[in-house]
Amino acid sequence: MRISYINLKQEHKILKKQILQAVSKVLDTANFVLGDEVKIFEHNIAKYCETKYALGLNSGTDALFLALKALDIGPGDEVITVPNSFVASASCIVTAGATPVFVDVCDDMNIDTNLIEGKITNKTKAILPVNLTGKICEMDRILSIAKKYKLSVIEDSAQAIGAIYKGKKAGSFGHINCFSLHPLKTLNACGDGGFLTTNDESLYIKLSKLRNIGMKTRNEVQYWGYNSRLDSIQAAILNLKLKHLDKWIASRRKIAAYYRNNLIDFVKVPTEMPYEKPAYHTFVIQIEKRDELQAYLLKNGIETKIHYPISIHLQEAAKPLGNKRGDFPVAEKQADTILSLPVFQELTKKQQDYVISKVKEFVKNNY
Fold first, then answer.
1. Taking residues 173-201, what's their average pLDDT?
2. Which of 9, 10, 79, 310 is most enclosed, with most CB atoms within 10 A?
């Protein structure tokens, strides 16, 4: 049996006829940039995330960058975030001119809220927590800290669309909340894309101009802005896929529960609290002989991934920040032990059983 890490071909085979119809409709209107489909998507996704406003953008990275710019964060400012995310969570801070200040993570791979206050200085302007793997951070505690120190909160929910924490959806907590629509995400465009959400009308108005080259009207420019617009064809596809999103997340949660119940005695598996419903963008196990397990699974036809094998603070690009190995021991340890198993919604029961059997087989033969 051969099992890929993700099966985008199967997803689009199922929806191909409907997708082509949606694209054809946009072609007939020739309204390709910030057209009606984008407006519909923004309305639909704001409603889904339980926020007042949403803006479609050309990537999740731009969502983070524009959030920082809208909050006037730049040179001389510091933003607290984590070292174990995809590099965009930190690179957007640097490209905005500010400095990322890293905080180590907890066992669940999300920011350790007990360490945040110790990193706050008079230069700190915002906290940028990352809802890694599709599990929402301890947002109530983060918001409390932010309020105490008068900081903004930018919620990075690139991996967490549809996740729930204490009755609230991912993307409804921060002052600005950022999402990716990259093809590998659960709600995915057929190309790149992203969006952000907010409940702040003034930020929404400012962001709507920043994403469109700072334009107030067709002939008036209020800000030096950026070109970061979700195009109408992608929005049309996303409006179609959004109707399936809850079903896809439910399938991922079911697969995750099956993995957890069958692997809990063999490897370290993700856990859930009663007040949360992670969306399982990834299902990440932890094991000391990670590289050996990954090689063994690949030999047996099972593709896995590592999210992420090198912590951001140890990347070459991060050298000027002055961090070193040992500064964030939990994140560094996890980088050596984490392994993402296939968890895409089309994964069959037979495939799940095969993955489980091979993980068990490896552990029994090597421990």
1. 98
2. 79
